[in-house]
Structures
1.
Amino acid sequence: MSALRLVGLLAALLLVPSPHVGAELPTQDWVRTETRMDCTAYEALRTPFFGETHLHTSLSGDSAFVRVRTNPRDAYMYALGSAIGLPPYDPNDMPTRTTQIRRRLDFTAVTEHAEFLGEIRTCLQMGLPGYDHQNCIDTRAALAQPLGSPDDPLPPIFVAFTLSTVVPTPMRLPLCGVDDVNCLTQAAVAWQEIQDAAEEFYDRSAACDFTTFVGYEWTNNLAGFNLHRNIIFRNAEVQPLPTSYYEEPLVEGLFTQLENDCVGVGNCDFVSIPHNSNVSGGLMFDPANGDGSPLTKAGATRRATHETLVEIYQHKGSSECDPRTSPNDELCGFEQLKRVNLFAPAAPDPNLPAVNFTRQALKEGLRQHNLLGANPFEFGLIGSSDSHNATPGGTVEEDFGTIGHLGVRDRPPSNPMTRIGPGGVTNSGGGLAVLYAEENSRDALFAAMRRREAYGTSGTRPMVRFFAGRPPKDLCDRPDFIEEGYTSGVPMGGTIGPVLEKKSPRFAVLAMKDPGGNGEPSTQLQRVQIVKGWVDENGDTQERVYDVAGDPDNGATVDLDTCIPSGTGFDTLCTVWKDPKFKPEQRAFYYARVLENPVCRWSTRHCNDQGIDCDGVVPPEFSDCCTDFVEKSIQERAWTSPIFYHPERFGLKGDIKLGKDPGKDKLKLQLTIGDIPPELDVENNDFTLTVTDDDQIYTATLPAGSFEVKKPGTSYKYKDSDGLIDDVKLVQLKVNSKGVAKIKFQTVNTVLPNADASTHRIDVRLTVGDYDETDSRFWELKGSKLKSQK
Amino acid sequence: MRGRNVLRQPALHFLLIGAAIFAASPSTAPRATPGPTVRAPIVIPASTIAELRKEHQLTIGEPPTTAELESLLAREADREILYREALLLGLDRADPAVERRVIEKMRFLYGDDAGTDAEAFTRGLEIGLHRDDIVVRRTLVIKMRLLAKRASVTREPTGTELDQALEAHLAAHADRYRQPAAISLRHVFFSTERRGARADEDATAWQARRGRTPPADGESLGGDVFALGHELRHQSPQALAKMFGRPFADRTTTLATRTWSAPVRSSYGTHILWISDRTPARVPPLSAVRARVLRGYRAEQHEIYLGELMVALRSLYEIRTAPVAPATEADA
């Protein structure tokens, strides 16, 4: 017996009351890939950083078309609190409007459209090759004309630009010259300008005040459907040129180019963030390749590796769910864009493909996981603005009617009320991206994007924590909620197995209202919901929404004439929840949705500000002030990234008996696998079990064929009282009719000198062929036994 | 003579230098020469005023007020001045955009009779097709502004003089570059949601029990669950406002360090704070923010230069505006 163990056993005998055992801090899962100072504000428990991952300035063609003149520098200045100019510009080139963010952001990525990046510069910078081309002359002439009403046809040159991104084999406009050299040369200049601005405003000092990301938007408008992705780079090492739809019209081609330029190249790394699946004609999350060929396991893995986040909400509406496919979720009507494609007018109850919405995509992903062995749509959720005004985080309901996101398209005040795109009455202020990170630096925030520890909001700033696993039932009563959440579970975006064997894992959610500030309200919370999606026993996908905290009938409301809210809600909500319908064999996801009390929608405020009286004469251009086409009040909300339940993983209970004498130690385990996957084949593969803490405690390998086949596929046994192979006495594998497997494992008396006699974290790993899973949890010292914690 | 005096003004002088820089080859050098140049009065006719009104209505959504209209007219006059001066400086020459535009117009008017590109261009200039053309006009005005920008850089000091100018700029705009204060704190939280009116009481009681004992590293201090934990290091008032609300953040700036505070209210309840460390806000040294300061300095100098230039140029012109009719209902 080691001296350490003796001390441990004595301590246990003395029954020293240990405070809560085992709380530990999450480990930092990133390294620094850039030269910068360490942040003085570093919290191992991670705090939420509020920011923007989707933003356009005048370097984007469509922003320039709506007369926006601000650039990426202005965007960063806006995010930091400076006032910036908005069009229309007066004849002296001075902006006639200015705007200022009410509460500054922690981070921002400017994501200009990769398409037209060079074209716009070519046409607007005198003397550049291509400046004299008719396309550019037309562009400048169109820009010099006053903007018409929303009903007017677009200038033909703008139509030509747009059409070139709609066809399946896109070509740049002739202004770009032979081999597009004019435009690509200028795209490189613009790309440098984007990088320079990001560098200028990135705080590399120890204050870690503000983080910028270099990025761009790949703008696939195939047949008018939105297949757009934002590419965000981890650091200043980026692609030599953004990949546009012209170069790569398929998402797989985009990935190939990004992999060539940015995977294994220095410290380059990226994520791809799809958005507006709600106008994608079912194509964004079609479980197929871009060319229609079937998805493979490798293809699905590639998708999930690159696309770790999806915008669930932005100024072109919510992509969460569709009232048609989720009739039992009364909150799906929130901010529906109501367009069948990017260019169609908004219309009541459009018939949209179910998979246009992220909830359905997440469900389809589970189904694909069962079919392919990998989930292409295992993504986290964020919000963003998609403002084309260089106004990152300009999401406030109070301001949207006067400021808008689309330059002069939002003037005069009747324009925001139109049903004709772009913009219009079904658009909104968009949302925010929230990332949990140790510090405000690129590496730390990027790591959060990778591990999906992120949530989206509809523009407000509630704080939400979400953990799943084995958090104690009384977690909400304990001040160490966060430490314990990380210790006994995984945070939002994580994955879990059947950690409590056949019982439901526990889900802990803590929400605190937006504290408000600078004229932004601090609206109280109404309730917290958990949204579950799963694949049932027939292989069909299902969903259900549970109210888990708060009160849906709290009676809070808002006066639509004054926009003053009334009634009370909650400052904080906290609960630990179990899934009453949990089935260990069914693949599932769970995300939390946090609802605030109702407030006026921007359009209601706007109509009030314009003096529209629905009982009087309503000007026709303001008619939707007085219809039910858009909601009058909304409940701002947050959506956490889902936690994914992987039934092929295992949970366990076990103990290590620490013998009084050497050679009298014993290991006993019972593993529960939720749904045994085909690769776990003990007939044809070695069976290896390893137990480790900071050292290896025990390992055993039974060669293929060691098991006695009691019943092929469902019952196997290995027994040897002498423990000739690695002291293994018994291994029994039984699978029930639903696929739930139990593995019993016992050793004979053996020597486990590395099993420290203290409560600590122990990993148990099972490897059979391609099957390789690990259970990691605290094991408590009780008397002379180490017992796995429940 | 008036014109000569004006040319001695620094702004215009630099503009000419700028124009020389702008022109890449001798053949395209500006044709302006010092000396008397006849500058016809600028007339803003009623039709232009009507257009300005209409544009304002279209873009802003309502007719301009009298003050707004005056400002629109002044800007229109400025734009005309810049355009005229651009023509005087010959900026329309050897400009591919202007050339192209004139040729296009000639072809539209005369078809094949317009002749070769060169002929069409020459004839087009003779009949003044480049005048009052929206594209040419805009192009030239932008060109003049660019020129002013470049010219303003030519009078920028160098070496230690520049350093001094930047130091002065940093000092004058310290707010823009200041790094925020930072506070490190532990807090014990008493939730209104959980304790209702007792939150304050419980906080006070906790404080009475605790006395003066400082918090130990890793010590669990009790109280209620908080979404951000109970220890925060080196946070700016901005960050604290984001987490706890503005009044709480403001309050932390006045609390004594290394002692348990009186109860402090946040958006969520009552807190007892221990502020372990406080770093004041400071203006960083120039070396740390030089690139940003230089940019800001240049932008400011450019504005000053442009302002001086416009004052100088306005004195060269007589401006006649058609009588301005008061805004009528019809305008709205």
2.
Amino acid sequence: MSAEPIQPLTPGSVRRLPQGEDFRRNIARRRFIGRIWRYLFFSSLIIGVIALVTLLGTIVNRSFGTVAVQERVNPATLADRPLEDLSQEELLAIAQANISGNVRRRLDREEPLAERNEAELLRIIEEFVLQREVVNSWPLSETLFNYRHIEEQAAEEFPNARLEFRSWVSWDFIVRPMSRTPALAGIRTALLGSIWMIVITMLLAFPIGVGAAIYLEEYARDNLINRIIQTNINNLAGVPSIIYGMLGLAIFVRGLEYFTSGQFLGPGGAPNGRTLISAALTMALLILPLIIINAQESIRAVPNSLRQASYGLGATQWQTIWNHVLPVALPGILTGTILGMSRAVGETAPLIVIGAATYIVTDPSGPFSSFTALPIQIYNWTSRPQDQFRDIAGAGIVVLLILLLSLNAAAILLRNRFRRSI
Amino acid sequence: MSVLHDPNPLNPNAIEARGMSIYYGAFRAVKEVSFSIESQKITALIGPSGCGKSTVLRSFNRMNDLIAVARTEGEVIFHGQNLYGPDVDAVEVRRRIGMVFQKPNPFPKSIYENIAFGPRINGWKGTKAEMDDLVEQSLRGAALWDEVKDKLKESGLSLSGGQQQRLCIARALAVEPEVILMDEPCSALDPISTLKIEELMFELRRQYTIIIVTHNMQQAARASDYTAFFLMDQDRAGMLVEYGPTDQIFKDPKDERTEQYISGRFG
């Protein structure tokens, strides 16, 4: 404190603020700093965009390209017409005449040859009789920019093969079941597995998560126990997914095997607990904290004036929650659910731990069947030694991304519908 | 669970506070308030910010129950029954004693649904046509019908601030309360909307008992029959300083502090 009396402020009376030229330099410097930050933020954006474009580019590069196809047996030696034009009986005759031994027994065990339709028989003939195989493949970039090299290499190494452009992502790829031959492998079983899993997961996680959020926000008192629960939920959202996989393995696959294998429904269940329901339960646990936290946030964001208005008319607590809190909170709750769903679709580690099958040719038939899922399949394909598995892995990634985007789009449409109705 | 008594024509009072104290946790927000509110009159609660007048108002329909730490001592008598008695249900209290809030807070639903909500949740048994009538009556009661009759399906939020507030009044009327509590209903409105609400209050006084909290001294003076003046004591607890007919409070206050406040020397 100075002893002098404080002078009243007049414009420019305190010379500690920069004046005149000094002030203009000061402004220039402040603007310069602002510009630097702006460029820094812009470069972050650019880095992000480059990463994304590289990712998509790599996937697309792998999913399309040139293949060298070679057949051990000339189809002309089997029939006088193109195989596509033959009837089921004719195809069956060719298959029965040319396939024997273990392969035949295995195929018959899956489904007797006589009962299969034309498309399936054709596929079997291509795989086991003609032994049509892709002997080499080249990515899209080489196809576009260095086709001459491809031709030279093919002529040199695979003189009997013919070159054709191939989109690994195709309708055939989506509807075909698994195969040990990459060129014939499809993703149907994995796609269905993923869809089954996500449906069961959401059926479990959405009501439980929203219910828990409603309880915590609207009913729970602010006491020690509830605060501990809240802290734990927040922390659970950060637990690595592989740990949830361990949990699922211990509890659902092993501990509750009698139920998760479907044996409690009678004979004919899965041989063990590594079933869709175990995976869905594990995924539900994994995304529960995410759904709870987001639902809590959006319930908390409902203005209190709305609750008061409702109570003021003589509404009970549940009437208030059901009629006013939930409708207003629903778009936000759905946003959290979308996040949870995307996470569950793409999550791989827990599925590996609980032991989802990686080679399975039958479609999942219900919650108690063994299954495979898209990320598992992609992971499995990328770790195979043959180069062409990398191509179908790329195609698998494209399918996974399309599934993810369409699920999200559906959820966002749903959310916007609710938003507009307010 | 007992049901609240019906109005008694011999009892001139709608609500009577007896030695009412309200606590927020350990803090006493309102201290020993006792006064009677006459039926079918407008009673204004005035006083500086933080003097507990809103808290008193909200205690009349047990809205303070919604605050976990709030606690009320003493009695609030409504038709001879203590609203804070052990067997009185706050849900019934709030149906019989309605409330209009400071900021207009229509539900984010259609105008029609805003009105229909109250009757529905309280077990409305009538037909659709009867509900249409009730909606019209309520909106007419709140002097809003002519302005909204062609757009009942539009959102309540599409109305202007003053219209929203009258919608909130109409919404309160639809559950047929006897008393309407108004917590600074005009503080967010322009003067013309304020005037409309005041005219409406005079209209409503024929059927309903109205208790209004206001910061606006002129409003209390011109729009109320009785005025209660609240002030904080040294412990920052609100207390009732003076209560009487509005004319007397504004023209001939008994208490020196009332006189100072209404003449604008503080607050």
